[in-house]
Design brief:
By secondary structure, the protein is an all-alpha fold. It has one domain (38-154). The protein has helices spanning 24-31, 41-60, 65-83, 91-111, 118-137, 140-155.
């Protein structure tokens, strides 16, 4: 005979979604005064793993809002870097990728499932390939400044709005 389970008295409290998308390491390097040098290979790998893994979760349908947030944050940082001349010719690539990411977000409200459509998946993969190259070129200060700009835009309410 099995023992009866104790009643669970704890209420569910989901973890807050981080707007930095796992990119806190850059901010820490910036705070320590390593602004002029590019990111080390191991740092690039760690950051790349975070947003590529989140993209894989979105592709497979195993994603949550945190995965979506990580992907969107990386895309926004890439777009800011492009706006500032690091891969400027790819700015439209980031815009298309963000459009696809926000289609998934809008769909998740109805379906409670974060999944990308085919166009969004292709656009985000292309944008991430560009972003990987941006991260090899950009200094820590440029990346940290891009992160700050993304955070300021979010706080100011300057975020993607679905067309009416």
């Amino acid at each position: 005979m099995t023992k009866p389970k104790k009643p669970r008295n704890k209420t569910y409290r989901p973890k807050p979604v981080a707007i930095h998308g796992g990119l806190i390491a850059i901010a820490m390097c910036h705070a320590r005064g390593h602004e002029a040098s590019p990111l080390r290979h191991d740092q690039l790998s760690d950051l790349g793993i975070a947003y590529w893994l989140s993209l894989d979760n979105l592709r497979a349908g195993d994603a949550n809002e945190e995965c979506w947030s990580c992907v969107s944050c990386a895309l926004n940082i890439g777009m800011v870097l492009a706006e500032r001349g690091i891969g400027a010719e790819y700015e439209q690539t980031f815009v298309q990728a963000l459009d696809g990411a926000f289609r998934a977000k809008a769909r998740s409200v109805r379906t409670r499932n974060f999944r990308l459509d085919g166009d969004a998946l292709r656009d985000i993969e292309t944008a991430f390939q560009v972003h990987d190259e941006q991260m090899k070129i950009a200094t820590r200060a440029e990346v940290a400044d891009a992160m700050t700009t993304v955070r300021q835009r979010i706080e100011a309410g300057n975020v993607y709005q679905e067309a009416a």
